[in-house]
Design a protein that fits this description.
By secondary structure, the chain is of the alpha+beta class. It folds into four domains: 33 residues, no CATH class; 196 residues, Metalloenzyme, LuxS/M16 peptidase-like (Cytochrome Bc1 Complex, Chain A, domain 1), CATH 3.30.830.10; 204 residues, Cytochrome Bc1 Complex, Chain A, domain 1 (2-Layer Sandwich); 206 residues, Lipoprotein localisation LolA/LolB/LppX (outer membrane lipoprotein receptor (LolB), chain A). Helix 3 packs across helix 9 and helix 11 packs across helix 17.
């Protein structure tokens, strides 16, 4: 460089002035550009150690821990009080813990709810309760007065009876509205399926459980768990350490809690008056069951909400937690280029958004992946969702995906540091979850070390595609049967909106009434035993639309038990069954085969023109099992057990005696399908009332309408010959 400058000085005269300066500038500029290779991005430097801010920690003599995070940029101070204890089961009064949080700020020994609200408004403050503590904030000049209010709320809440009843009413209203919100249903049932109802995280509040909650339950919970030895006081904002400590000491130092801890019995169980035996969180649930399709029916829903869920063993201080978060970001954790988003939204246009989450938790973590889609693509969306979960387990992610995910996470982390409450949360988490002191300070360095191999290991360890429960909330008739082949059991399991196995609500039948009585009323309603016994032949022809194709269904019967059925589209026969009383055949587009075993027995059972008269001969066992509502009409429900082991359910109109519906789970090579058949428009033909409209749903909707019914008209014997 010195040689270049000497050459320039020797060639430029002292009188060259501004021209000489310009030449030197241009030369230096060209020289510098020549030394930089702009075809390659600069090599990034090492990730920095993050200055997350400092917190000052101390402990009061009564055991309350105090965390102070100073931030004097704004004249604001906030306080979080957290009472830390293991989760407990709420049992048959699920919902009372949420009421504790709502009512915590509804009255103290000195103030009514109205007075508390007035004070909060006058101070321009925030104050909100939770089942594990509270949050409060205000301007610095008002904070001391706010702290006095906080002290009263924490140490002398009264849970007023009138406010308790109002809160129960509001909560009950929310529970009623849940049935109309598919996302809420999916959230609640998804938690129940992830953790199980035997785990505190899987419990579901219902109208029935809420009705059992009493004010004494809230008081008992508060007295047992709102104690100084469980408490963390976290100050954030325009307050000095000694000022915060002095406030905490002056207000809380002499607080010992209200209740008295009870000794455990010989079995290690603690019993609390007002709560009964405490059941703390036990062994964490494990994803070990086969892949299951769970369904909550919302008739008429135009969309399906899908959630794939299972528990994971991932605690906050797990060495693999950061790799797991990178894994989730790549799969569906918020980045637009995430795999679920690219597949289900961009490539297939199934949804506006598809996401996943992996939640860390000291007692049990969880995985969720899901989206909302149109009914007609629900099964395809589930297939693609599971494909992506399996794919990320089986194949390493790309370097591009890894870099994008890490950059996204680093940016989110940096932005979170702009909020002083983040530092407080970091300090609280460090103590609650036994994290390393530099856990957050070294976040970026640790994130930088996450490798493709680390993500792969996290996927293989945590993701359980074979043990996933896939929950769908949607229209059963349009969607459910299509999901059966995706379950390892080839069956869809139905749940109600509270996460319990679905059971029809039923009233008790009249005392002494039996299934035989209901069947007798039906036989009388369609014409009586005398008229039915005179029927020797029966021919029924229906038309229907099946997947856009017009089809004709023809059923022919001859006594005692001969049967022929054909389903066709014009001259093309789609399926044909013939049963001569002993043998049977089935033929269709795949050829003809002799019926044997269960298929032959099904043909025999179909050969009875009026099977309700012959349940004894068929060796069916019918049981009256209550009165249910079917589309606004009261119907007797009868469970029928076949001799072959199958079960179906029939419904008979209480007023008319006529059969209105039959439901059955039918096995097939694709899976076990729920078949619902509705009967309507009964009309008399030669003295026998026969349904002229039959609507059947078995994975597809088929609406059959009678075109012809003939009673006791000759049917050629050749129709029933088995060849």
């Amino acid at each position: 460089m010195n040689q270049h400058m000497s050459f320039i000085r020797s060639q430029i005269s002292p009188n060259s002035g501004r021209w000489s300066a310009l030449v030197v500038t241009l030369f230096l500029s060209s020289l510098m550009h020549a030394q930089i290779n702009r075809s390659k991005p600069p090599v990034p430097g090492p990730p920095p150690t993050v200055q997350v801010g400092t917190s000052k920690n101390s402990t009061l003599p009564n055991g309350m821990r105090v965390i102070v995070v100073e931030n004097h940029k704004l004249p604001m101070v906030s306080l979080q009080i957290r009472f830390d204890h293991p989760p407990i089961m709420q049992g048959d009064i699920v919902g009372y813990q949420d009421l504790v949080g709502e009512l915590l700020t509804s009255g103290t020994a000195r103030r009514t709810k109205e007075q508390i609200d007035e004070s909060v408004d006058r101070l321009g403050a925030q104050l909100s309760g939770a089942s594990d503590g509270l949050f409060a904030s205000s301007l610095k000049k008002n904070f001391k007065e706010l702290m006095q209010l906080v002290y009263e709320v924490v140490t002398t809440p009264t849970f007023p009876g009138a406010e308790f009843e109002k809160a129960k009413t509001r909560t009950a209203s929310g529970l009623k509205s849940r049935v109309d919100d598919p996302d809420q249903i999916a959230e609640v049932v998804g938690r129940a399926l992830t953790f199980g109802k035997g785990h505190p995280y899987g419990e579901v509040a219902t109208e029935a459980s809420l009705a059992k909650v009493k004010r004494e339950n809230l008081v008992a919970y508060y007295e047992r768990f709102f104690r100084p030895e469980y408490a963390y006081l976290v100050f954030v904002g325009d307050i000095k350490e000694n000022e915060a400590k002095d406030l905490a000491y002056a207000l809380f130092n002499n607080w010992k809690g209200t209740g008295t801890l009870q000794a455990v019995d010989a079995n290690g169980v603690e019993t609390v008056k007002g709560l009964g035996p405490l059941r703390f969180v036990g062994q964490a649930p494990v994803a070990i069951g086969p892949r299951t399709m769970a369904f909550v029916d919302r008739p008429g829903s135009a969309q399906s909400v899908i959630k794939a869920v299972f528990p994971v063993d991932l605690k906050p201080n797990d060495p693999g937690a950061l790799s797991a978060q990178v894994l989730n970001t790549i799969l569906g954790g918020g980045v637009f280029n995430a795999r679920l988003m690219q597949n289900l939204r961009e490539a297939r246009a199934f949804t506006y958004g598809a996401y996943s989450s992996i939640e860390v938790d000291p007692y049990c973590g969880s995985f969720m992946a899901g989206c909302s889609v149109r009914n007609e693509v629900t099964d395809s969306a589930v297939t693609e969702l599971m494909f992506e979960i399996e794919e990320i387990c089986n194949k390493p992610v790309t370097q591009e995906e890894l870099t994008l995910a890490k950059n996204y996470m680093a940016g989110n982390f940096a932005r979170s540091l702009e909020d002083p409450r983040t530092i407080a949360r970091f300090s609280l988490n460090t103590q609650l979850y036994d994290l390393r002191a530099d856990h957050y300070a070294t976040y970026l360095k640790r994130l930088d070390t996450v490798s493709i191999e680390g993500v792969q290991a996290a996927a293989k360890r945590l993701l359980k595609p074979e043990n996933t429960t896939v929950l769908v909330v949607g229209d059963k008739e349009q969607v459910a049967n299509k999901l059966a082949p995706l379950s390892f059991s080839r069956t869809v399991v139905y749940y109600d909106v509270n996460g319990d196995i679905y059971r029809e609500k039923a009233e008790l039948p009249p005392a002494g009434m039996t299934a035989k009585d209901v069947m007798g009323a039906y036989v009388n309603a369609i014409g009586g035993v005398g008229a039915i016994s005179k029927v020797k032949t029966l021919r029924k022809e229906y038309t229907a639309n099946m997947q856009g194709m017009s089809v004709t269904l023809l059923e022919q019967y001859a006594s005692p038990v001969k049967y022929a059925m054909s389903l066709g589209n014009g001259p093309m026969v789609l399926q044909q069954i013939v049963y001569d009383g002993v043998r049977g055949t089935k033929s269709g587009m795949e050829g003809k085969k002799e019926l044997v075993d269960m298929d032959l027995e099904d043909a025999r059972q179909s050969a009875y023109m009026f099977p309700e008269l012959f349940y004894g001969e068929l060796d069916y066992k019918a049981t009256l099992n209550g009165i249910v509502d079917i589309e606004g009409r009261k119907c007797y429900r009868i469970f029928v057990q076949k001799s072959s082991g199958g079960v179906f359910t029939e419904y008979y109109d209480k007023e008319t005696g006529l059969k209105t519906r039959r439901t059955e789970i039918q096995p097939s090579e694709e899976g076990n399908f729920s078949v619902t058949t509705d009967f309507s428009d009964y009309q008399a033909v030669d003295g026998i009332r026969i349904p002229h409209v039959i609507h059947q749903n078995a994975g597809m909707d088929m609406h059959f309408t009678v075109t012809s019914i003939e009673v006791n008209k000759p049917i050629p014997a050749t129709v029933f010959i088995v060849k």
